[in-house]
Amino acid sequence: MAYYDEIEIEDMIFNEEEGSYYYPCPCGDIFSITLQELYNGDEIAHCPSCSLVIRVIYDPEDFKQEEEGAADDTEGAAEEIETQ
C-alpha cells in the first residue's frame, strides 16, 4: 500500500470525547484513527473525502498495556500517550 505520509502519533491531535486521533489532509478534510483501531494494531488513518491514507507511527506496546488493564478505559491510554 502506498501512503501519502508517515506521521508520528505525537503530531496528531487527540479528541478525548471521541477517542480518536486526527491529522489534516491536504484535500481539506481530516485523517482519523480511533483508539480501538490502535488497540487492534491498526496503523492506517483514512481521509473520508479522498483516497489518501497515512501510516501512523506509534508504539503498540503503549496501547496494549492499557487494553489489558482496562479495555473500556480509553482515556487512560490517551493520557499516557500525551505525557510521553
TrEMBL record:
Pathway the protein takes part in: Protein modification; peptidyl-diphthamide biosynthesis
GO BP terms in the entry: protein histidyl modification to diphthamide
InterPro entries named among the record's database cross-references: DPH3/4-like, DPH_MB_dom, DPH_MB_sf
Spans annotated as Disordered: 64-84
Keywords: Iron, Metal-binding
Gene Ontology MF terms in the entry: metal ion binding
Residue ranges with Acidic residues bias: 68-84
Catalytic activity, as annotated: 2 [3Fe-4S](0)-[protein] + 2 Fe(2+)-[Dph3] + NADH = 2 [4Fe-4S](1+)-[protein] + 2 [Dph3] + NAD(+) + H(+); [3Fe-4S](1+)-[protein] + Fe(2+)-[Dph3] = [3Fe-4S](0)-[protein] + Fe(3+)-[Dph3]
Domain DPH-type MB as annotated: residue spans: 3-59
Family: Belongs to the DPH3 family.
PANTHER family per the UniProt record, alphabetical: DIPHTHAMIDE BIOSYNTHESIS PROTEIN 3 (PTHR21454:SF31), DPH3 HOMOLOG-RELATED (PTHR21454)
UniProt name for this protein: Diphthamide biosynthesis protein 3
Organism listed in the record: Naegleria gruberi
